[in-house]
Amino acid sequence: MHYIKLAMDSDCLLKLTKAGLKERVCRAWRIVVPTAVRRETVGHAPMLADAVRIRANIEAGLLYVDDRISEAKKEEEAVLRLYDQDGIHAVATDDERFIRHLRGLEIPCAVPAVIVVRLYLEGALNLDKAHESLEALRPHISVEEYAAVSLMIEGGKIRDHKNVKDAGGSDGGGAGRRHV
After folding, report:
1. How far are the Cα atoms of 40, 78, 82, 91 from residue 108, in angstroms, in the given order?
2. CATH number of 78's domain
C-alpha cells in the first residue's frame, strides 16, 4: 500500500465517519487533524455518536491531532498550516469553497469519494467493499461526484493511482481538482 499522509478538515472527517469509512481510512493512511478540527468534531457536542467515535479513534492513535497549530482562528487556516509542515501529501475536504481556495494555491486535495477510489486502487478495498463504501457515502456527496466515482470503480476506467485527478462532477468544483 502506498503511504499517504492527509491533513483532514471536519467536513471530510464527519462524512467519512457517518459513512463508516473513517477507521478504514485511518488504518490505511496517516490522518492528521489540527486542534480546530478536534474542537469542531468532538468539542462542541461531545456526546453525539460521531464525536464519540472520533474521540475513540484519537485515543486509540488511529487519528492524530497536531496541537502545534492551536492559535489558528479558522479551521481552514489551521489545516493549511498543517499542510505546510510534516510531509502532508494532500488536504482531505469536501467543502467546495475550501477546495477552490486550495486549487488557487495549487494544493492537492482529496474528497471522500475519491478517497474510496484510492483505497480500492491500492487494494485496501475489494470491488464489493468499494461499492458498499460508495453507497454509504452517497447521501453525503453530490449526485455528479457519486456518478463519476461509480463509473471509475465499476467501469475500470482507472487502472492506477496516477490517473485519479479530475473525478468531480459538474457541481462547480469538479473539473480541474487535483486529487490524491
Report:
1. 23, 16, 13, 6
2. 3.40.50.1010
